[in-house]
Amino acid sequence: MHSNNTIEKSFTTEHAMLFFKEIEEVAAGSFAIHAKYAMLRDIFKRIVNQALSQTSINFIGLFAKVDYLMKQLDVPTDTAQLIHDTRRMLNAIHTTSEDELTTSLPHDLKATTLLVELLCESMAPTSLTAYFPTTNRKRRWSKLDAKVLRCVVEYWDDQYIYATEEQNASSVKVCYGTQNEYLWLGGKADWSYLKQILHKNTQINLVHIRIEDGVYMPELIIYEPDYLIDITAVASCFETYAESPYVHLLNMLKPPPNTVHIHLGNLAGQFLDETIHNKHTSFNESIIDFFHHNAISLTSCEDLKDTQTVARFYSDARQQQQNIANLIGEVLPQEVKEFDARAVVLEPTFFSEVLGIQGRLDLLHVKNGDITIIEQKSGKGAFVPFPTDDFNPNRPEPQEKHLVQLSLYRALFNYEFGKRADQLRHFMLLYSKYSEGLVSIANMPQLTLRAIRMRNLLTWLNISCTNDGFNILTSLTPEILNRNHLTGRLWVQWVRPELERTLNPISQASTLERAYYLRFLRFISKEHLLSKIGNKTKDDSGFAAAWLDTLEDKRAAGNIYEELTIESFGENGDTIERLQLKFSTARSVDTSNFRLGDIVILYPYRHGEVPNACAQMVHRASISNITEAGVEVVLRNPQTDHRLFLSAEDTRWAIEHDMFESSVKSLYSGLHSFLSTPQPRRDLILCQRKPTVDESITLAGDYGAFNQLVLHAKQARDLFLVIGPPGTGKTSFALLNILKEELTNPNANVLLLSYTNRAVDEICSKLVESNIDFLRIGSELNCEKTFKPHLLCNRATTCPNAHAVANLISNTRVFCATTTALNANIHLLKIKHFDLAIIDEASQILEPHLIGLLSARTSITQNSISRFVLIGDHKQLPAVVQQTAEESQVDEPELHAIHLTNCRLSLFERLLTNCKATDGYNPHLVYMLTRQGRMHQEIAEFSNIEFYGSKLAVVPLPHQTLPPDTDELSELKIQNSKYKYPNGIVQILNAHRIAFIASPRVGNTTAMKTNQVEAEIIAATVMQIFSSTADSFDEAQTIGIIVPYRNQIATIRNAIDAAYRTMFGNADSKHDEAQRNKLHNITIDTVERYQGSQRDYIIYGFTVRHPYQLRFLTNNTFEEDGMRIDRKLNVAMTRARLHLIMVGNPEVLQQDETFSRLINFAKQRDAYYDIPAEKYCAGNFLVNTDKE
């Protein structure tokens, strides 16, 4: 067997022994067969991931990973097929009968063991091999799917691709040369470009295959199909000057367009919706509604500042409304006899894993299986240079890019959904500018192949730039891009100048600026790629998980709501806007990772089948409410056809996470704007000049203990950094006092930003308390109800005209938003200048998310933001990054010189490093808050010593110094207790502010990310706290439970239910139901979700049962000044005000040095308890509370 150094380093004999033990526990265990397979699948995936943990390659799906390993290890074909057979069986658990699984299990145990043996050349123990079958498995994977076949490329020549196909893991020979007439259409298409873009391990889809003399002859070949490309992105590559993927690349860099034509197009889309929904809206009503929903972009549109342009806009819009009403309401029903407006679906979304594309149609009409599609265009048709005698100016010639869109939609219905040509009845373009603008489009096979070619090239370019960098941008010129040799007025006056505006900043940038720009472009692109295909460090990540993951994977990851039924739908007139979906009665506790405001996809499937988002159209929506009984969603595109949701009895609905690429586009264009921002701002960001400080400035107000902080923030004329450890009042004191001082200048405007909506809600609460007026940018779904009147979209509804909106924006001095919301509304920074921006949670915000905001300009020479204050704590959780630390590391020496060593670092952290000298931080630029008012001093002690160098002190507030026996718990006498002494759990809480409860080592169970014993210990602790605080119990403030895995959440909720029944019986009164609801509403979540929160009692359940799980638990550590900072542990421990209870297995945890010190810390304070779990849960133990 061939040796591979990377695999050898990743997979040791120690790993092999641990995996052998786990496999044997599955074989010997008495679990149900489906449970055994769930365990075996988890083990198989961890084996593969461990073997690949040190490779630099990102793999899409388990097939690609296993195939790579087999080839790297030179595994014989028959052996590789055995392992692939097991991979397939592990993916098919949900659809395989118990009898089949029982028969197959010994073979799959053997193949999984064989994989381990191959990886480290260790032999399995005989105690394990005794469970193996003596005969080979009967192979059942012989039938090929003629619709599509996934393959991994091995090598290729001018005519053939040699690959491994997924179904049988066998070698196939694929003809992509001219001999394949299905591909080449008799010379009308060209697939030779594949030779230049293929590489070893590329995944391809072979679509509609014919096999001739053993050679595979597909109709289409799709390059890296899991990387979905939007159909509009493909169409955008067909420009007058070029048919090239580089067109789309440049489009990504351009600022978001804000022209009268863009607004006319959006308004025309609204007219279409109103016509289909039969709203009979007047023109004036439509205009007003449109303005209220687009206040910022319309107010900032330069075109609309000219009265003649405004008049023409109204005239054109009125004409388009009339044309749409006529063409859809009168012409279409006459021309398409089966057309029924009630059967129309507006803007349905489709995902095609077969073709590697996604798209959102403007209008879909389905009746009796027949399809009519209409794409609306508000602009002009194609330019006709030499009109013929029968030329009609009211009938547009379609633009090629628009034809490309329809061709790909036709291909989607054909190849993904199997629709016959006779079912694809009408594909039309609606040019609403023209009175006769309805254009029927025939099938165009040659254009379809050009579109597929462009889809493949665009995928290749995106992946290539991600892996190899964007240096190509430094050599591109308008002349190189002008592949169609466009000349004349269009080229000279419009196209070339626009290309120069995009390309010139790159060529004119300094060496440092260009290095910074190119490195972050690559970083953004990599994050974008991984958000699509998944990352190496987290299973079940990436949008492709929607079709790559099994249902079991999605359930375990909390990535799906399934078995939903529609209970009701909320209507607005004749349209359906909201859906209430009911959870299945068989469903256990909610373990999903869905939250209010999340963007999701919703789609139906037949009961008993596996939900599949690629099987039909999906609805895009946002979650507006989640209860014990169900979930409510708001459709992004309200519908008219009630039949869409009045489904058959056996119809069920599924919800999965969605991904919007518009937010990524803002990062590309924001980074590009950095190259054009005024030089002083560029130099500041790149640490090429010292930030300015004016010590002559004095305070106008008095802020007591915070005077020095506010003064230094005011004197800093460029930037100021505030380090805010947990509980030190970053928002309540630092942000608010700096804001109040700035507002003493009657002409000052201030922008308040944060990373999360929860933090913005907190900022809003402080503004309301201080009676400071403000406007908030964002959506209602992500805004606390109290602050919705402050949303700009709501305040704008009170403005009668554009002038009033402009005055509202101009006269409001304080704006607040998340960075994501402001990036999506970047035009605000074109019309509004801010003297100061205060950015909270700055250590959680990646640099590209801020750089576009800090580079924005109100004019060529003036930045939109004059000064900025960043508030954060780099010792708490950082921004979430998809890439590994190795992938995001920076190698360029010139970037190291400005402290940019890794793209995963926040701008806050990089500037903090730049402000640091040997004797500490520059006090004129950095201030550290050191008095915390949250944790009791005993709770804060460990974090203070370990992570903050003992610099923190309590305020002190009353609750921070009192002994524990002054709490409500001290009075507790457990009713119905059969013991003569108080409950032992209560004794612990009466004796200590911080306690560590040792849990026993748990063996293999069906779910490796749960711990039943710890769940019961936590539940028993919750019940004692709950029963003692019944009168004052507040589900939002009293108890919080933190765990590392989502799977453990359900385990704990079930344990709490059981503990409640044990303590109070099965009472069924309204009071009892209210009590149960209180317990249900206790927040049990991961530490990432808890950052920024606090509770009186925090219970931290470590959950881990095996040493390998420590890597996940400690994956946010770094060293500073000789201290090892564990960010997760720091955040978890510092959420507690009065009591912190930690539950974990010391045998496992002590293998990490920080956890070992934590356990010793508890022992030194006699706060370490190793009590048998059964006794602990019953409270049947005594605590020695004698104190020296």
UniProtKB/TrEMBL annotation:
Pfam families: AAA_11 (PF13086), AAA_12 (PF13087). Residues 905-1146 form the DNA2/NAM7 helicase-like C-terminal domain. The keyword Glycosyltransferase does not apply. InterPro entries: DNA2/NAM7-like, DNA2/NAM7-like_C, DNA2/NAM7_AAA_11, P-loop_NTPase, PDDEXK-like_dom_sf, SF1_C_Upf1. CDD domains: SF1_C_Upf1. GO terms for molecular function: helicase activity. Keywords: ATP-binding, Helicase, Hydrolase, Nucleotide-binding. Residues 710-781, 803-882 form the DNA2/NAM7 helicase helicase domain. This is DNA helicase. It comes from Leyella stercorea. The lineage of its organism: Bacteria, Pseudomonadati, Bacteroidota, Bacteroidia, Bacteroidales.
